[in-house]
Amino acid sequence: LKSFYHQVYEIVACIPEGKVATYGQIAQYIGRPRAARIVGWAVKNAPSHLHLPCHRVVNRNGELAPEHVFGGVQIQRKILEAEGITFDEKGCIHMDKHLWQGMHYKNI
DNA sequence: CATTTGACTTTGA
DNA sequence: TTCAAAGCCAAAT
User: Fold this and answer.
1) Where do runs of H (alpha helix) occur along chain A?
2) Would the Cβ of A45 be found within 7 angstroms of any atom in strand C?
3) SS3 A20
4) Backbone angles phi, psi at A88, to 5 degrees
5) Banded model confidence at residue A69, pLDDT cuts 50, 70, 90
6) Is residue A54 annotated as part of the catalytic site, yes or no?
7) Tell me, in Å, how far CA of A105 is from C1' of C4?
8) What pLDDT does A101 receive?
9) So what's the pLDDT on residue A94?
10) Residue A51: which pLDDT band, with cuts at 50, 70 and 90?
């Protein structure tokens, strides 16, 4: 059985362009619905050579990562907007439109 | 082995 | 509606 870490990587790698996933959602897919924090931790420590789309992982409110990540929220936001993701007036992602709901990766 | 650390989530006031 | 506090748990130290 692969480590929790590795499973997070597998799933993040499956998030399609123009969609986002939440930490809790990923944790659920792995089978640890209360492990949202660990998902954040895993993504934070993701080896760069995996080239994961970690900018597509946000919290459940559709808020972006803290300032110190991605060189600031403005940077992350530009990346996401370039993929077709839209934001509301508060700077949160329109989760109802962009939340990734098609999870069909197979057996990690 | 015990403790700390979070890019989180839920709950209750 | 907003906010603080309390759970959460795999890795790292």
Assistant:
1) 4-12, 23-30, 36-44, 73-82, 95-98
2) yes
3) strand
4) -90, -175
5) confident
6) yes
7) 38
8) 87
9) 96
10) very high
